[in-house]
Amino acid sequence: MSLYDTNLYKRLSPDLQNILISGQAFFRNMVRENHITWRVLHDLMKNQWLSPSELELLQLKELRRIVKVAQKTIPFYKSQFKKIGFHWEDLTSLQVFSQLPAITKETVLQNFEEFIPGKFARFYSVSGQTSGTTGAPLKLYNSLMGVIKEQSFLYRQRKWAGYSRGQRRVWIRGDLIVPINQEIPPFWRYNSVDNQLIMSSYHISKSSIPHYVQAIKEFSPAFIEAYPSSIVPIAAYMKNNGIQRIKALGVLTSSETLRESEKNLVEEMFMCNVYDWYGQYERVAAIGTCEHGNRHIIEDYGYTELTDCSDGRKEIVSTGFNNSIMPLIRYRTGDLVEPECGLRICPCGRSFRVVRKIIGRQDDFISLPDGRRVLALTFLFKGDIPISEAQIYQSRDYRIEIRVVPNLGFQEYHAGKILRRAKDRLGTHVPIKVVCVDKLKRTERGKLQMVVSEVKTN
Fold this sequence. Notes:
single chain; alpha/beta; 6-stranded antiparallel β-sheet; globular; 458 residues; 6-stranded mixed β-sheet
């Protein structure tokens, strides 16, 4: 459960909420942002300048390590490798590795218990779920060291943008920090430990955007981290109303598709580069943006293969290096990229491969009559909701139908929990209902779209 959903947080005054948020940040940083984090970051800062041949050696070393762990501790891989007559010591080249069978999200869902290294793994690992943008959230276990390494990679991306730890930072990424029915500012809270202004992405509307602009101006951040659906409307309002631009070092976007026109707009109004970051909760691959605006495959994060699809597009099939608790080997993400064929070496000097475009991230918005666009709705299905798939459908008149495929044990109170969560995020101004169905319609690529909205937005 998020801190913002607790009764304690909701009962406190804004000033005391600031203290509670800062206290949580202090203890969180002790765990995942400590001397180990900075030691890993030091190594990553060196890795980014490795030559292609040096990167291959690093990748092979990491693959041998993670495959050895998988064969020794993960029942699924013990069985699979035995079946094909493979042993981790046979892994002598990247070419050999590419011959191993690939797996999908469905593979893990269908064999979930076989991917966990013994019954005690749950007690010394960190658990979480994928976003569920393909309709069926996947629970995953990660090591604490894997969490720390993830933070180190994110810090390196911030460094590419010129950010230094401790500088003022605005955060607009799906935190419901004030009640959804609150209509007057502030729609934000302050984390003093991280010098961070945390703003609600749920309250960005035609009437509230001027308050957001003013708060950002007064805070004067060096860096902004936001969903595209949060920062783009703010930038558009500034441009359309002739508001003076705000100078920042960089804007870091992630979790949604960022269109080129939107990127240009944000860069214009905040007088800086936009750095787009791609990743998944499976932690198998990452793509980051360098100072020259090129998207690089983060080659020391995992071994990423780009397999042929159609029209020059490639699917990301990758193996992460950082999760030794529940490693996923040659995991098919279902996300596509368009490689940058004409660019051999980026002007930034890094040997990491460059992709021109990331495809497959759907714009999973619910649109509301007041102009708000709400993204972070995967929270509705997290925890103990026994469903196999889910989809949110919105008709042209804004009505919302939450469609779920129930598993054994699904009760009326589960539907009620989903409905309450939806109203907490969306308010009560649009009709919402939960409907149980036998199956959900797929896209042409066979993926299940989390949100299908008939509402037309600009």
